[in-house]
Amino acid sequence: MHLLSAAWSLIGSLAYLGAVANAAGVLDFGIVFPRPNETYAPTDKFPVVFALQNAALAKNLGLVINTFVRSGPDLLSGLDGADAKHDLKSANFTTSEPYFVYHFLNITGEGLYELFSTTSWARCDERDNEVIITRNSSNLLARFEIKKGAQMVDLVAATADNTKTCPTQGFALNVTDETREAPEPWDYRPSGTCAVLNSSSPTPTANPCRVKIDSAASESMYAALHTALCKGLNPPADCPKETSAAQQVAVASIVSIAAALGAVGFLLA
Ligand SMILES: *[C@@H]1O[C@H](CO)[C@@H](O)[C@H](O)[C@H]1NC(C)=O
Ligand SMILES: *[C@@H]1O[C@H](CO)[C@@H](O)[C@H](O)[C@H]1NC(C)=O
Ligand SMILES: *[C@@H]1O[C@H](CO)[C@@H](O)[C@H](O)[C@H]1NC(C)=O
Ligand SMILES: *[C@@H]1O[C@H](CO)[C@@H](O)[C@H](O)[C@H]1NC(C)=O
Ligand SMILES: *[C@@H]1O[C@H](CO)[C@@H](O)[C@H](O)[C@H]1NC(C)=O
Ligand SMILES: *[C@@H]1O[C@H](CO)[C@@H](O)[C@H](O)[C@H]1NC(C)=O
Predict the structure, then answer these.
(1) Could you tell me which residue ranges the DUF7136 domain spans (predicted)?
(2) Beta-ladder partners of 111
(3) I want to staple 155 with a disulfide (CB 3.0 to 4.6 A). Which of 37, 151, 218, 258 is the partner?
(4) What predicted TM-score, i.e. pTM, was given to this entire model?
């Protein structure tokens, strides 16, 4: 079992039909795929997709997503190679709305699985005229089953009905347009620009089920995976002979994330 790829954003707004816009000032983060309690056919290209709505608000939040997959009869074991970390501290969130973060898993065995993710963010914490940066986090999970003969994974079909609400699949943060500069502290704490969150306002409700993945967005994710596999040790038969400069740039980012994970040696060209 391998983690096959890592994340970057999708260019283009085609991905978002956005009939119901999110409230201004509210960053909505959530698991778009897999859908909870669904059963899918085994595949070596199983997508895990998170979406940020109002993604530009994430600029100074220093988001980091850590995920792993539980498996086994009582979900007591971990799925080998399925651990992934997406560090979005220097992501350019204005490249697409919504902003997708994704990777692919190789899930060939039948059974019950649970995607578990912990997403952390930074915020300004102002006390006694002092600005420090504190982090908080939120856990999200999606349980699903893999069974031969079940529906094939189809991101477009899975997200077609965006009238559903699924608040437990995500979380929302009320991000003000104010930032502060946290000075270099005497200890290990981080410094720099932080976002001011409004925690006094009522907690906004997330709805990642509002996000549609259209065919262009879906194809773009699989194309990114294909590009990564073509640079790997066992490239598929249909890889292009020449590698363009753009592909090399894309692969460079994959390799660095793969290296950070300490996994997926076959991605390293
Ligand atoms: C997926 O996992 C199976 C079983 O471990 C393995 O045989 C297969 O080669 C893997 N596929 C890819 C693309 O890594
Ligand atoms: C999925 O199933 C679990 C266990 O039966 C249940 O607790 C949970 O509410 C379900 N989630 C959704 C989104 O239906
Ligand atoms: C972020 O992406 C946008 C749109 O592609 C681009 O105009 C902008 O220059 C990028 N910003 C940085 C800091 O790379
Ligand atoms: C951390 O975030 C949770 C929501 O995920 C919130 O309920 C809690 O109040 C936050 N804690 C702090 C110290 O901001
Ligand atoms: C978010 O905070 C702003 C002020 O910064 C406030 O006007 C707005 O009502 C809040 N939104 C929600 C959904 O809580
Ligand atoms: C937080 O939001 C509330 C209403 O939701 C608003 O009254 C208040 O001014 C906001 N605070 C900040 C610091 O923006």
Answers:
(1) 23-239
(2) 146
(3) 218
(4) 0.83
At 140, list the tokens: 């999200």
3-class SS of residue 136: strand
Which helix (H) or strand (E) segment holds residue 67: the answer is: strand 64-71
User: Within a 13 Å sphere around the CA of 122, how many CA atoms are in the beta-carbon half?
Assistant: 24
Nearest CA to ligand 1 atom 2: 1
Residue owning the nearest CA to atom 6 of ligand 5: 201
For residue range 145-155, what is the model confidence (pLDDT) as tens digits? 999 999 999 99
The DSSP bridge pattern shows strands 64-71 and 77-78 to be: antiparallel
Residue 159 DSSP symbol: T
- Number of C-beta neighbours around residue 177 at 10 A: 9
Q: Are 28 and 52 within 8 A, CB to CB? A: yes
DSSP state of 267: G
Distance CA 9, CA 49 (A): 11
Mean pLDDT of 217-232: 93
pLDDT at 81: 86
Is the minimum distance from the CB of 138 to ligand 4 under 6 angstroms? yes
Closest C-alpha to 131, from 122, 139, 140: 122
| DSSP summary character for residue 147 | -
Question: What domains does the chain contain, in order, with CATH numbers?
Answer: 2-230 (2.60.40.2550)
Amino acid at 66: N
Closest CA to 100 of 154, 155, 137: 155
Q: Ligand 1 — pocket residues by CB below 6 A?
A: 1-2, 44, 106, 108
CA distance 20 to 27: 14
Q: Is the backbone of residue 34 left (phi > 0), alpha (psi -120 to 50) or beta? A: beta
Across residues 224-239, what is the average pLDDT?
90
Nearest ligand to the C-alpha atom of residue 266 = 1
